[in-house]
């Protein structure tokens, strides 16, 4: 078992290998994390782990809340995640490599990272200025029939895109889609309009074939829904939102 200890960045989203993650960082705990990452040589990867939040708040309260105006704001690296923060997170996440870390004049950061490797969360340490975690790297096994499933998923995804574009009365990008099964599985998982639990199930699938088979079912279901609800709102598949962490 290969384990690694890295800074931990919980988000209200799921990061997949190969996908780009823009971040707008203003909380002190994450500023401290970025300052630490900047100590790493530019020749070395500046890595941190991203996990999706299951029960907690991405941004900690910084002022008295309602209805109790006397309540104190939460402080510290685990603010918003309870007394045992590991219980607030999904257990499978993704390592992110920060290609760009730019500090602004006000001390906040603009970060552009890319997902690299899936990891399983083993433990969380809240003793420092930011959360760190011990993580087990997860291999990406192909599984049985991944190639054939990838072809079916690509066909279903193109149909899904067309239906979604029609529902929004606009065209989506005509860029070429990849054909490598694991890349297809992660791209479709990230691009499809699904809630966090559904995306999390795809991230933690035991192998590529299982992920693709689940995506095929989801795409067919979602396409059928869009067909009957042509005014269904959806996010733009060609853009990734910046997390206001």
TrEMBL record:
SMART domains: LON
Start and end residues of each Lon N-terminal domain: 6-223
Pfam families: LON_substr_bdg
Signal peptide: none
Segments passing through the bilayer: none
Gene3D superfamilies listed in its UniProt record: 1.20.58.1480, LON domain-like (2.30.130.40)
Protein name: Lon protease-like protein
């Amino acid at each position: 078992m290969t384990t690694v200890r890295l800074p931990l960045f919980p988000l209200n989203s799921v990061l997949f290998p190969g996908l780009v993650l823009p971040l707008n960082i203003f909380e002190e705990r994450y500023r401290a994390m970025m300052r630490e990452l900047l100590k790493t040589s530019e020749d070395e990867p500046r890595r941190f782990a991203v996990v999706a939040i299951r029960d907690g708040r991405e941004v900690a309260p910084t002022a008295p809340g309602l209805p109790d105006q006397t309540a104190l704001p939460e402080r510290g690296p685990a603010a918003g995640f309870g007394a045992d923060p590991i219980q607030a997170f999904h257990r499978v996440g993704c390592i992110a490599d920060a290609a760009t870390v730019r500090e602004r004049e006000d001390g906040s950061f603009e970060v552009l990272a890319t997902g690299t490797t899936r990891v399983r969360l083993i433990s969380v340490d809240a003793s420092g200025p930011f959360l760190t975690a011990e993580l087990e790297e997860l291999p990406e096994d192909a599984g049985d029939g991944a190639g054939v499933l990838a072809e079916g998923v690509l066909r279903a995804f193109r149909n899904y895109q067309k239906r979604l574009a029609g529902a929004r009365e606009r065209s989506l990008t005509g860029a070429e889609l990849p054909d490598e099964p694991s890349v297809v599985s992660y791209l479709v998982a990230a691009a499809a309009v699904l809630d966090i639990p559904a995306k999390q199930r795809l991230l933690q699938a035991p192998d590529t074939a299982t992920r693709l088979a689940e995506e095929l079912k989801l795409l067919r279901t979602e396409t059928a829904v869009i067909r009957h609800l042509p005014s269904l709102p959806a996010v733009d598949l060609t853009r990734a939102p910046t997390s206001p962490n």
